[in-house]
Write a structure and sequence with these properties.
GO terms for molecular function: aminoacyl-tRNA deacylase activity; ATP binding; valine-tRNA ligase activity. By secondary structure, the protein is of the alpha+beta class. Helices cover about 45% and strands about 15% of the residues. The protein contains 33 helices and 34 strands.
């Protein structure tokens, strides 16, 4: 973007007074003085500093009021006040939308005087959907299939747990901007909508709702009745989410709407399970799993949050009363006596209850302290009949750590599990599924796990085996869904061996150089894939895809259901029965389907191709739209979802499921905090679109599943962040804001006020178009598109604006291709606001009036129409509603075939409009305008402005001379503007500002400014400035200054810098006025 040269003032600048009263400085002095006093709190000092600041602002405001009061106020105080004439406001009729549902919007009424987003957004989506604008047309002879001109994005399916939040709105805003961009570029586009059943999350939220509303659990209903409750929830929220998607303007093909538990997608899940099993990649084994007691299910490692504890910490755990906090972050040492000897071994544990499952103590084979105990037996402290061996293990034991001896609990610790396997130790499970201790725990049977923790320590003390308890920094595994502390337990589960899948996926990603942005996400992807672990895919839930595996229970055969060899899988019950009969080999058997369901990610990992018809062979959707073009999602599910889609896509289809991955940032609140219902900062996009009161926000909290304590905490957060609620902003402003914030990998701290700022931009857009349409009346007919492309305008400002339009189109195209959404929104915003509205529309007012020269007027109209038409198209990917409405209000272009702006051509770069030289010339013109405006503002001139543009270069002077009328129009209150060749042609009594090395602007101030009055004002300001400077410097020189709070010191130093800068500007202004007075 070419920018006008910077303006360098050599004349005095208007300096806003910083008139801080003595009281304010005294308050600051008090704060500094108290900083060294004993017993004075920092908060008291901060309050004093704030008081000083408040008083300073009040004084400055009063000083300005006094300065503006007329000098003759005292003399004329007795005169009656002139009554202010109230401006009549014309009331607009109440707005109604006469459009029939599904029909094109009725725009026969005049445009409203201001932008109302809800009025503008009304009716458009129903028409788009009814017309099928977003359903791609199948390939034909006229429009054959071209993979290079096909763009497909599968929406990451939102969970049906609840409504969409701002994070979803970000995803949709980015994706739909790309879909609309590529559609306008002539691509065949497909944006696939859908929903995820979200097994654990949805079951949990429905269970909480039933408990809160009906005081019932899922067990009160039974499996089938409970599942019906979940389906009812799913139907309600799927409908509500679909409405949110439409309100967000997303150009989804809703004819392809999918749900992960639809029949066709469930068929894909069954095929996935069966094929993996048949290929030996999926297997059943009794292994250590992450067990969530609260949810009563296993979890994958990715669903477990590792919470760091710095030392002794008391935590609330689900299932325990709020006042019963559990101790973590300590390590307990105790004694294991050696059987038949006085010897003993001291070991330590952070989980004393697991002593009940110990089956060995390990030492390092080279540790001299314990060599005489190798192979000896130790007496278990609580289970009399259990003697446990001392084993040697160089992998598990670090001689230098602690006592060099480690207790081994193979059934309840991942590291101990490996030791147990290496030494063939017994695996003793001490936990029931509900978190109570089982019969293996002896006297502690039936106790809750953390109650047993305290009881075990007390019992060790009673037996004289306790040594000590010390603080111990540690990591506690916590369920990301429930917040429960995870227990490692032995469970027979279904597992996927991920190594072969990951190896093939990584090879394919490297081979095809798949783009993953930002680069750090790509590095993380490879690191995770290269260290991937087996994936536990079964869950002990009711909601989800039931495992398509069957236990073949044969008569007369001793079987262990935890062993995979007694199981068959089947795409249908018939196939499973056929395989079971073959296994039974003539014996009687019963086929029992596994009660478990599959991990949610096992189904959503198929999303890019299951939504396109896989595993059915040769579907048109798979043929034309797979692989998809792009996966755009949050970086936080890179491993949960993206990696699994790549692994399963390569495994099942032999292709990467998408050509690129773009990981957008996490949306946080304005304070940088993660969105959380309990903080009250989770925002429904509809509330931003429509606006909502604080009371409305807080009512939403009461309708949710939060408990009373969480509701109160969230309500306080809302009151602080949204004291007046959320203003109505509209979809277009919300989408534009979210895209404007987006840079790959960078977290977004969303300030709702910024959305309101872009709503004002929409209002500017609306009013500018409304005004411009007045210039396109009286039978104006636009040029056909081909003629518009070849059109060469008459005036310099027209060539400049078409050059700016051309440059914006080129920049925006590049930015969208590069996924630089922040730059893309910035360039189109700048074009509309600073080029089109602030310059061109203002500049052409005289030449588009009815009395203007016809040819010049028509040229300006064609250029104006081209800018409005193309400008709306450039904005359309981000702001679909307002651009559709305004585009339909433009005069219809001859030969226009597109019914919607969404199908129009995205403005290409046009070499005919590459007016670079002319644009540079107009940049000088506008730089001169800005310089005159700045001088006029400095001297308080709003009328009778007489300016002279001194241009040394003859060619440049000729150009600027021809633009005097444009400059006159763009300078408000301008009486005259003249181009001259040298300073001697400028009358005396002018001030000057430098535009460039060859251009100066002069402003006549003699006779318009009272020099004595201005100098008197400046003298007062300088006196006040000097007083403030002395007092502020004195503050910093006090003996106790170093003890003053850091923020007070920083504020005072900043104040000092500001006062110094103010003094310099005041002195400069004083010298210039004295010079002018003496020469006048």
């Amino acid at each position: 973007m070419s920018q006008p040269p910077s303006v360098q003032h050599t004349s005095p600048e208007g300096v806003p007074p910083s008139e801080v009263p003595a009281a304010a400085t005294a308050a600051a002095e008090s704060a500094a003085a108290e900083g060294g006093a004993e017993g004075t709190s920092k908060s008291a000092q901060k309050k004093a500093a704030k008081l000083a600041e408040k008083q300073a602002k009040a004084a400055a405001k009063n000083a300005l009021k006094a300065e503006k009061a007329p000098a003759s106020a005292g003399a004329s105080s007795g005169a009656p006040k002139k009554e202010k004439v109230k401006k009549e406001t014309k009331e607009e009729p109440a707005w109604t939308d006469p459009t029939k549902p599904g029909e094109q919007k009725d725009l026969s009424a005049p445009m409203e005087s201001g932008y109302n987003p809800l009025h503008v957004e009304s009716s458009w989506y129903a028409w788009w959907e009814k017309k099928g604008f977003f359903t791609p047309k199948p390939p034909s002879d006229a429009a054959p299939y071209d993979p290079a001109k096909t763009f497909v994005i599968p929406l990451p399916p939102p969970n049906v747990t609840g409504l969409l939040h701002i994070g979803h709105a970000l995803t949709i805003s980015i994706q739909d901007a790309l879909i609309r961009f590529y559609r306008m570029k002539g691509y065949r586009t497909l944006y696939v909508p859908g929903f995820d059943h979200a097994g654990i999350s949805t079951q949990t939220v429905v269970e909480k709702r039933l408990a809160k509303v009906e005081q019932k659990s899922r067990y009160d209903y039974g499996r089938e009745a409970f599942l019906q409750k979940v389906f009812d929830w799913k139907d309600e929220y799927q409908a509500r989410i679909s409405n949110q998607m439409r309100r967000l303007g997303a150009s989804f093909d809703f004819t392809r709407e999918a749900f992960t538990m639809d029949a066709s997608l469930s068929e894909a899940v069954t095929e996935n399970f069966c094929k993996l099993f048949e290929d030996g990649i999926l297997y059943r084994e009794n292994r250590l799993v992450n067990w969530c007691v609260y949810l009563n299910t296993t979890l994958s490692n990715l669903e477990v949050v590792q919470k760091t504890i710095p030392g002794r910490t008391l935590m609330n755990v689900p299932g325990y009363p709020p006042n019963e906090r559990i101790e973590f972050g300590v390590i307990v040492s105790f004694v294991y006596p050696v059987v038949g000897s006085d010897d003993k071994i001291i070991v330590a544990t952070t989980r004393p209850e697991t002593i009940l499952g110990d089956t060995a103590v390990a030492v390092h084979p080279d540790d001299e302290r314990y060599k005489h105990l190798h192979g000896k037996l130790l007496q278990h402290p609580f289970i009399a009949e259990r003697h446990i061996p001392v084993v040697t293990d160089s992998v598990a034991v670090d001689m230098a750590f602690g006592t060099g001896a480690v207790k081994i609990t193979p059934a309840h610790d991942p590291n101990d599990y490996d030791v147990g396997k290496r030494h063939n130790l017994p695996f003793i499970n001490i936990l029931n599924d509900d978190g109570t201790l089982n019969a293996n725990a002896g006297e502690f049977k039936g106790m809750k796990r953390f109650s047993a923790r305290r009881a075990v320590v007390d019992a060790l003390k009673a037996k004289g085996l306790y040594v000590e308890t010390k603080d111990n920094p540690m990591v506690v595994p916590v369920c990301e869904r429930s917040g429960d502390v995870i227990e490692p337990v032995m469970k027979p589960q279904w597992w996927v061996n991920c190594q072969p899948l990951a190896k093939a996926a990584v090879e394919k990603v490297r081979q095809e150089d798949m783009a993953i942005e930002p680069p750090q996400s790509k590095r993380e992807f490879f690191r995770w894939m290269e260290n991937i672990q087996d994936w536990c895919v079964s869950r002990q839930l009711w909601w989800g895809h039931r495992v398509p595996a069957y236990f073949v229970d044969m008569e007369g055969v001793e079987q262990d259901a935890s062993e995979g060899r007694w199981w068959v899988v089947g795409r249908t019950r018939e196939q499973a029965d056929e395989r079971a009969a073959k296994m039974a080999n003539g014996r009687a058997y019963e086929l029992k389907q596994d009660e478990d369901v599959l991990d949610t990610w096992f189904s959503s990992g198929l999303w890019p191709f299951s939504t396109l018809g896989w595993p059915r062979a040769n579907t048109d959707d798979m043929k034309y739209y797979y692989p998809t073009s792009m996966l755009e999602t949050g970086w936080d599910i890179l491993f949960f979802w993206v990696a699994r889609m790549i692994m399963l896509g390569v495994y099942h289809t032999g292709q990467l499921p998408f050509k690129e991955v773009f990981c957008h940032a996490m949306v946080r609140d304005a304070h940088g905090r993660k969105m959380s219902k309990s903080l009250g900062n989770v925002i429904d996009p509809i509330d931003v679109i429509e606006g909502i009161s604080l009371e409305g926000l807080q009512q939403r909290l009461r309708e949710g599943n939060l408990d009373e304590k969480e509701i109160n905490k969230a309500a306080q957060g809302q009151k602080k962040d949204y004291p007046r609620g959320i203003p109505q902003c509209g979809t277009d402003a919300l989408r534009f804001t979210l895209c404007a914030y987006t840079a790959a990998g960078r977290d977004i701290n969303l300030d709702i006020m910024r959305v309101e700022g872009y709503r004002k931009f929409c209002n500017k857009l609306w009013n500018a178009t409304r005004f411009a349409l007045l210039k396109l009346q009286d039978g104006y007919t636009p040029l056909p598109l081909a003629e518009q492309d070849a059109f060469v305008p008459q005036s310099l400002v027209e060539k400049w604006i078409l050059y700016r339009l051309n440059a914006t189109a080129k920049q925006l195209d590049h930015d969208m291709q590069q996924r630089s959404f922040m730059s893309a929104t910035s360039c189109v915003y700048n074009f509309w606001l600073y080029d089109l509205c602030d310059v061109y529309i203002e500049a052409i007012k005289p030449i588009t009036d009815a009395g203007a020269e016809p040819a010049a007027r028509l040229s300006a109209q064609h250029t104006l129409y081209a800018c409005l038409d193309a400008g709306l198209k450039l904005l359309h990917p981000f702001m679909p509603f307002v651009t559709e409405e305004l585009w339909h209000r433009l005069p219809v272009r001859p030969q226009e075939t597109c019914e919607t702006i969404a199908h129009t051509r995205f403005p290409p770069w046009n070499p005919t409009h590459d007016f670079a030289a002319e644009a540079a010339q107009f940049d000088d013109v506008f730089a001169s305008v800005r310089a005159v405006r700045a001088l006029a503002a400095d001297y308080g001139l709003t009328s009778k402005i007489q300016a002279f543009v001194e241009v040394q270069n003859a060619e440049s002077r000729h150009v600027l001379s021809t633009q005097c009328s444009v400059m006159h129009t763009l300078i408000k209150g301008c009486e005259s503007i003249v181009c001259v060749s040298q300073a001697s042609e400028v009358p005396a009594g002018c001030v000057v500002a430098s535009v460039s090395a060859t251009i100066q602007v002069h402003l006549l101030v003699s006779g318009l400014v009272d020099f004595d009055q201005e100098l008197s004002k400046l003298a007062k300001k300088l006196t006040l400035n000097e007083t403030q400077l002395q007092r502020t410097v004195a503050l910093t020189q006090k003996p106790d200054w170093s003890k003053t709070p850091e923020d007070v010191r920083a504020s005072t130093n900043q104040r000092l810098d500001d006062l110094e800068a103010e003094k310099a500007a005041l002195l400069k202004a004083q010298a210039n006025f004295e010079s002018l007075r003496s020469s006048s």
